[in-house]
Amino acid sequence: xxxxxxxxxxxxxxxxxxxxxxxxxxxxxxxxxxxxxxxxxxxxxxxxxxxxxxxxxxxxxxxxxxxxxxxxxxxxxxxxxxxxxxxxxxxxxxxxxxxxxxxxxxxxxxxxxxxxxxxxxxxxxxxxxxxxxxxxxxxxxxxxxxxxxxxxxxxxxxxxxxxxxxxxxxxxxxxxxxxxxxxxxxxxxxxxxxxxxxxxxxxxxxxxxxxxxxxxxxxxxxxxxxxxxxxxxxxxxxxxxxxxxxxxxxxxxxxxxxxxx
Length: 261
Known about the structure:
The chain is of the alpha+beta class.
């Protein structure tokens, strides 16, 4: 396989078939994800069964309660603008961070792309941490954010909140990333009141999503894009979309065990 950087976050991986992928290739992709955050896998002529098998090679799949499953494929989540009079709203976020063990990886398969628009944006959260002013790092070191669920109908046994470090060591790379999610799901920062929490989260999101931190993926037919939820934020850009946008999403629950050097 051939790899080339696509921006401040992400690698394009060419000459790779996702059909019957072998363990050695999976390990290589996991290492790339841990370092570069996003993998663009173009020219994949696959169906949902093959997509699921590819994801299962990384580990056990997980599905967020309250999301819409793909008809006939309960492991995948349907993301679509079809039949919507008003474009969906999307802000930068991490998938399902309101549980104690958020999914390690998320992947999207392009089923139908619009005639124009519909990019997906990714932010480099290693770089976001590295470029924080020293005094901000000093003030936030050791603090946590309580992440809460919004907008989903959960059952009585489902997790609805979890506490995560703001500065999170990645379980594979060992690098530190700035770990937060959309403001509405960041309920509180340890040791701060409501106003200070809101102002701090807003500052961190603005810092994280500066243009120099972003990769904007323009979708092509056959694209599969996979990312590491431990070191990137993402959002869909629904402004100016012309035509139907249909994606199938799958998530892998856990990271591989980190091997000591």
